[in-house]
Amino acid sequence: MGAGAIPITVAQACRERALKKRRLPVFFAGSEYKGAGAVDVSFHGGAFFVSPPRELLLDYRLGRISPEVFEQAYVRFLEQSLVENRHNWDTLLGGTELVLLCSCAPDDPACHRHVLARFLKRFGAVFKGVRRTGGKRKSNAT
To answer: Which of 28, 101, 115, 132 ranks highest by number of CB atoms within 10 Å?
Structure first.
C-alpha cells in the first residue's frame, strides 16, 4: 500500500463493487475459445486474481476437501483478491461480456467456474450458458 493509501476491508470492497452493479453476461468455454471477453481462470496460468490457488484446487479435485470447504476457501480468496487487485477486477467487470475459460469441460459441474459465476452474481453478472467455439451456446443455469 502506498503512502497515504486508505486501507480497505473486504466488506467495503464488496459493498463498493456491488453499488456499481450492472448486468454482465457470463459464459463458460473451453480453453480453445479465443473470442471476445475470454478470460483464462484455470490454475494452469490463468488470470492470477481469479484463478484458485493450486493447492486448494488440487485438494478439491483429489477429494481431500469437500465441495463446501473448497467453495468457502475460494470465495475468501476472491474477496481478498477484490481488495488487493481492484484495477484487475474493475477491468474484468467493466467489459461487455465475460467468457470464463478453463481446462475443465465447460459442462463439468465440479469446475470452479461455477463458484466464480455465483461470486460474480454479487456484482450483477448473469450466467448465460456455455459458449461454443462455433458461436453457438448451450443455455445453463448456475
So the answer is: 28
